[in-house]
Structure formats: structure tokens, C-alpha cells
Design a protein that fits this description.
By secondary structure, the protein is of the alpha+beta class. The protein contains seven helices and 17 strands. A hairpin with a 2-residue loop joins β14 and β15.
Length: 346
């Protein structure tokens, strides 16, 4: 009735289990690891964890001071993840405490057609690599007639840097007082306008005298604040970046030469005539960096905590009590002789 279990059967069974259950952690490349996390379907989800400076970064940009355990990853990606349909788990906030590089100086390329609007270049941040990368300035078409592009900008808030995305609107809104040049001198836009449903652009070069500060507020940032008019513009209906603009950003992110750690603030592709086209005619290199930039350091969680008043109090200094030094033997002998000489003779 019962089948006899042999040693061979046990070995074959164990070998099958090893083949069916993947290794929990496997080495992917010089900076990344693949972790197989059990999922709700009874299988495994491959999660790539990339090393970033002194810590690690997950697929959603969440930061880990130490290499995450499988139990930690299951909260976001595995069987313990929230099961609310259409509502992804909220990733851990990554605090960017290193200021973006200064804006480089570059010439504006020729527009591909009269109806293109200039979108200035800027430094974006890739949490996956823990580095800033340059998004080249480029000429783009508005998603509909009458819309103008308000560029995004970095600003300092409570000890770290935050990026406010650019948008399309009927008016130019507040962009941090950042002097991007080429029509964006800190407020408004002088690089063209709409006439009878057609945009007429105007090339503006000669940005050598502009301020190269690339963020608002904090030490070294611009001190601009939105005017009442700009505050009103901020409440208007806005349209996000077009798909063409998003592809342009992705192309820049995937180009290693545009990372600040590689170009030190002077990108070889500073501007392009058409979005997403990083080679050939119409590509302009930076003339000079706004300031030499060293490689971006990893976000230190202790520094981020300190900026929010969460750092532990420093330990109290230990009171050091000096012990009295013993008397030298010669001094003791001299003291004893003096005492004996004072004893009266009986």
C-alpha cells in the first residue's frame, strides 16, 4: 500500500525543491542585487536593490540605511503589502540634502520651426543612482494654442531640497526667481508670444552675466518670493509636461555623460534643437560650468533627521576626576626626619 521511500527519492525531492525555490538574493552587477520576495500569488517578485553611497535604494525610490531584509521588502512588494486596488504603497521619503549644481552657461540652438517654445535646461535628481543629471534645454511645441511653459525649480524646505515640476498654463507662473537665461530671467518670459493662435519665438543668447544659482531659498539660493499676480497664476488650471517632454527627461536620465558626477557641472549636451535628440546637428555643449561640482554624496539619514529636529541628543560629557599623585619617596623621608627633630628629648 505504501511506497517505500528510499534515499534516492529524498535526494530527488530536495533537488526539485531547490530548483523551484529561487535564491533569495542574487548578485546583479557592481552596485545592484536582486531579491526574490514572496508575493500574494504564491510566487516570487524580483526586486532590484541598488547601492547608493552609504545606503541602498529600492525600485520606488525608498531609501535603506542598511541592506533591507526580505520582511522589509514584503511590506511594499510582497505578501504583506496593502491590498487596496489602484493605491500603491507609499515609499519612504528620500531627503535630498545636497544642493543641485550651479546652472551651466550655454548658447541656445536654432529652433526647428517658428512655433516652438523654449524649455530651459535644469538639473534633475535620480534617487536610483543618488546623483543629479542635466536635462538639456530644448524647443518644444505647446499642447494647445495659447499655453506657455513655466519651468520647474528646486527650493529649500526644512533642511532638504524639493523639486517643483514645470507646467503649461495661459500665464507664466512663479519659478523660484531662477535665472535660466534665454528669456527666463527669474520672472516672466521674454522669448516670444502668441499672435492669432500661432506662437512666434525669439532666440535670446548672451547669458554670461546671469546668476548661476539653481535653487530658491536656503544658503546660496535665490531670495525671490511669488508676487500677488504669480500667486493668482498658480491657482489657474495647469497642464503637465507633454509626452515628448517626458521622453526627453527619460533620455537624459539614461545618459551617463549627463550625470553631475561625470561632467562636474559642465554637460556635453547642454541644449538640443528637438526634444530627445542628443546627437547630430542642433546639439550644443556647455561653454562653462556655473561652478565646479564634485560627485554627489549619498543622503545621510542622520543629517536628514537632524534637519528635522529628530537627531538624538549628544551624550553628556564624562567628568574626568584626576587622582592625587603619590608623594615621592625622597619627599616622604625628608618629612619624617623633620617630624622626628621636633620631638623633645626625654
Amino acid at each position: 500500500m505504501f511506497k517505500k521511500i528510499t534515499l534516492a527519492n529524498i535526494i530527488v525531492g530536495l533537488f526539485a525543491v531547490i530548483l523551484l525555490i529561487p535564491a533569495q538574493i542574487s548578485f546583479a552587477d557592481g552596485n545592484s542585487y536582486t531579491v526574490n520576495v514572496p508575493n500574494a500569488q504564491g510566487g516570487y517578485t524580483a526586486i532590484v536593490i541598488r547601492q547608493s553611497g552609504i545606503g541602498y535604494v529600492g525600485p520606488q525610490g525608498e531609501y535603506y540605511a542598511r541592506f533591507p531584509k526580505v520582511a522589509d521588502l514584503q511590506v511594499i512588494y510582497g505578501v504583506n503589502a496593502p491590498s487596496v486596488v489602484g493605491k500603491p504603497a507609499v515609499p519612504t521619503t528620500v531627503y535630498i540634502t545636497i544642493a543641485p549644481p550651479a546652472l551651466p552657461f550655454y548658447e541656445q540652438p536654432e529652433p526647428p520651426a517658428p512655433d516652438y517654445i523654449w524649455a530651459p535646461g535644469y538639473w534633475a535628481h535620480d534617487r536610483f543612482f543618488g546623483d543629479y543629471y542635466w536635462v538639456p534645454g530644448t524647443w518644444v511645441r505647446a499642447p494647445s494654442a495659447g499655453l506657455l511653459w513655466t519651468p520647474g525649480y528646486w527650493y529649500w524646505r526644512e533642511g532638504h531640497f524639493v523639486f517643483s515640476d514645470g507646467y503649461w498654463g495661459i500665464h507664466i507662473g512663479f519659478y523660484g526667481g531662477i535665472n535660466y537665461g534665454h528669456g527666463y530671467e527669474g520672472r516672466g518670459f521674454s522669448g516670444g508670444g502668441w499672435h492669432n493662435g500661432v506662437f512666434h519665438n525669439k532666440r535670446i543668447n548672451g547669458d554670461a552675466n546671469r546668476d548661476s544659482s539653481g535653487f530658491n531659498g536656503g544658503p546660496g539660493g535665490t531670495k525671490f518670493r511669488p508676487t500677488d499676480e504669480e500667486k493668482a497664476f498658480m491657482k489657474e488650471k495647469h497642464v503637465p509636461a507633454t509626452n515628448e517632454q517626458k521622453k526627453h527627461v527619460q533620455g537624459a536620465r539614461q545618459n551617463p555623460s549627463l550625470r553631475a558626477s561625470a561632467n562636474h557641472g559642465k554637460p556635453v549636451i547642454a541644449a538640443t534643437s528637438k526634444p530627445g535628440v542628443f546627437k547630430g546637428k542642433g546639439v550644443v555643449a556647455a561653454k562653462q560650468a556655473g561652478a565646479f561640482y564634485n560627485k554627489t554624496r549619498a543622503v545621510n539619514p542622520k543629517r536628514a533627521a537632524a534637519s528635522h529636529g529628530l537627531a538624538p541628543k549628544p551624550a553628556a560629557k564624562k567628568l574626568i576626576v584626576k587622582k592625587p599623585q603619590p608623594h615621592a619617596p625622597a619627599a616622604d623621608e625628608e618629612k619624617r626626619r623633620t617630624k622626628d627633630s621636633q620631638v623633645p628629648n626625654l
